[in-house]
Amino acid sequence: MLVKWIRCTVVDRRGFERGQRKWAGLPGEPGFRGQGGGWSRLRPGVAHVFSFWESRAFYDSFMARSYDRLAAAQSGTFKGAQAKLFDHRFDVKTGFEPRFTDADVVRVAHSRIREDRVEHYALMQEKVWNPAMAGSPGMLRGCFGEAPGNEFLVLSMWRSAAEHGKYRAERVERLALRAQLATDVVALTGDVVDLEPAWTV
After folding, report:
1. Contact criterion met (CB below 8 Å) for 5 and 50
2. Would the CA dihedral through 199, 26, 93, 86 be positive or negative?
């Protein structure tokens, strides 16, 4: 599965949200699995959108055929858009499905890892972070993706911001030490996204 993460700064909120609803046509696209997104809790005016495709081939076909027509509705409503593609490597918890209807927030963590530490980082994600997240009340599901250049994405869906906040406060620092995160990571950015139900496709 291919995961696409788009982040942009919105300059015309009403126009952007109107345009976002035009993506409702996506389910007719071959290989499309799901899309959702919302507003950053930490950065005013920043929107995140996550979409999922069965494979790179299906995604490339969509980009060549239909993307421009759908994207035209949002032209001029945002700036500084960044889009990244990740190959799904494994689930966080089990049975990841790109569904957004039962979640309130998504936590996104994007990291660049030292070349000689990539396998260690992935192993720690599997052995340290995944069990801790999977065992946290309110954590629904997630996925771990990889992109060229030793870049990784951890996407986790939570029932509520309060439950995610509790996990962060109680466990993250301790887990980071155990996983030797500081040794593995060159750069780490993250955000917490309030999902907008109208953006779910």
Report:
1. yes
2. negative
DSSP β-bridge partners for residue 86? 3
Residue among 181, 56, 178, 59 nearest 114 (CA): 181
pLDDT per residue as tens digits for the range 90-117: 999 888 999 999 999 999 999 999 999 9
CA 32 to each of CA 91, 98, 114, 187: distance values in angstroms, whole numbers, following the listed order: 18, 10, 32, 31
**Placement of tokens 């052995």 in the chain:** 127
> What pTM was estimated for this model as a whole?
0.95
Round to whole Å and give the CA distance between 125 and 106. Answer: 18
Please give the Cα distance from 172 to 92 (Å, whole number). Answer: 16
DSSP string, 114-175: -GGGHHHHHHHIIIIIHHHHHTSTTEEEEEEEEETTTEEEEEEEES-HHHHHHHHHHHHHHH
